[in-house]
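Z., the sequence and structure:
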Amino acid sequence: MRTLRIGLTGGTGAGKTQALKEFGRLGAATVSSDAVARDVVRPGRPAYREIVAAFGASVLGAGGRLDRRKLGEKVFSSPRLRRRLERITHPEILREMERRLKRVRPGAVVVADVPLLFEGGHQRRFDAVIFVSAPAALRAARVMRRDGLSRGQALRRMSAQWPERRKAALADVVIANAGSRKKFLTAVREYHKALTLIAAGGVRSPE
């Protein structure tokens, strides 16, 4: 038996976190890139020291921890700074995600939330990729509400990612999240059932 690795991605505000939580509730092992990203930039970690050296103390908050909002304001206003941050953090995040994926028991379904999965060419790490899709206007509203951002700030963060159409074409499965929460979670449950069968050797691939 082998572990079935599923990459979960989608644009910011599409609903990846909600989908990941539901997969976990249903019994899948889960790896959250956001949780990993927070871990690798804790004070004392190599990425933390590099970020402070690159961006200065202005991105720090209480207790010397990184203030993600301050850092976000800097990097999403400049593609050059965003790429600099990505060069610092992405290798550390990927190494830690790989360690966590390898700890999952054989035969299990493990779902990893990777926001820039296609942008970074990480699809090869997974057996299949699920893409969560939602209209741009709805995603912008969710990001504004979730992060307390202006519409302009939300749109800048969205523009840093590939267009939905491009990523949906590359995914093995697309789950729409434009309607009710119940409908979205029902779709997640159906795909979880299919993935469990695949992991058990019952069918060849998701449809």
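The CA atoms of residues 6 and 128 lie 5 Å apart. The first strand starts at residue 4 and ends at 10.

Let me know what you think.
H.
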